[in-house]
Amino acid sequence: MSDTGVNQPQYKVGDIVNGHILTAQNEWMPVAPVPTPPAATLPEKPKRKWFLRKRVLIPVGLLAFIIILSNLNGSPKTDDAASVEAAAVATEEPAATVEEPAAVEEPAAEPEAAPAPEAGTATNPMPQPYVAKGLLGGDKYSLTGRVSADGPDVTQWNMFNDPAPAGFKWVVVELTMTGIDKDGVEPSLASFDLSLSTPEGNQYNEDSGLVLGDGMSKMYEGPTLYPGSAFTGHMTFLVPEASAGFMLHDNGNYIAL
């Protein structure tokens, strides 16, 4: 192969063209062809011999036939055996199912009752008999009372009594004081300590200008009371005509009438 010519393409050393290789001397030398290995051939599978298969299948089939025939000729179950087996099946109890306990609803919490107001207030007056305390402590006397007249005609008690002004009325409270203090107590203390009160908190002091009727005494007219002795007297009050629901009031304590 010549390395000359017009428009010859550019090759580099080692290129193979048309069975020739370009050498370092820029010459083309023939290249021996590479032999192609023959295609691999698979070995032919040996043919099975049919008579060998028959020799195996015939005994197997014969054995299966003998087994089936022996099962068909077997003795059937007796009625007793069948009954026992049926009874055994019938007596088998199904597995007990465990039921989960139903959820128990907790009762709703009851609302807490509102605490009762403190005793001695206008909404919760102290009951009778009321026990009065001394300034230095200790029980002084016990007291019970009731409204004996609501708007009486005081002019019938005494000719010098004036009727209640327009829009007002007279209220007379009957009190019974019992001594507790061993040193004695004066019933007149009621005139200084006690006032008449309404549920609205209005308080009225004693109006001592009235002359009481026959058999009635004012509290300051009573004797000194020692433990066990008692005196019944009266206090009079001038209050608005619409007033009602009266209570006594003593040093911050409301007392039921």
Describe the protein's architecture and organization.
Residues 91-127 are annotated as: Disordered. This is DUF4352 domain-containing protein. Keywords: Signal. Residues 91-123 have a biased composition (Low complexity). The chain is of the alpha+beta class and 257 residues long. Among the domains are: 8-32, no CATH class; 130-256, Sandwich (Immunoglobulin-like), CATH 2.60.40. It has 3 helices and 11 strands. The chain has helices at residues 50-72, 79-91, 189-193, and strands spanning 16-17, 20-22, 28-30, 130-133, 139-150, 168-179, 194-197, 203-204, 230-240, 247-250, 253-256. The longest helix is centred in the N-terminal third of the chain and has 23 residues, at 50-72.
In short:
This is DUF4352 domain-containing protein. InterPro entries: Immunoprotect_excell_Ig-like (IPR029050). The protein is α+β, with helices and mostly antiparallel strands and 257 residues long.
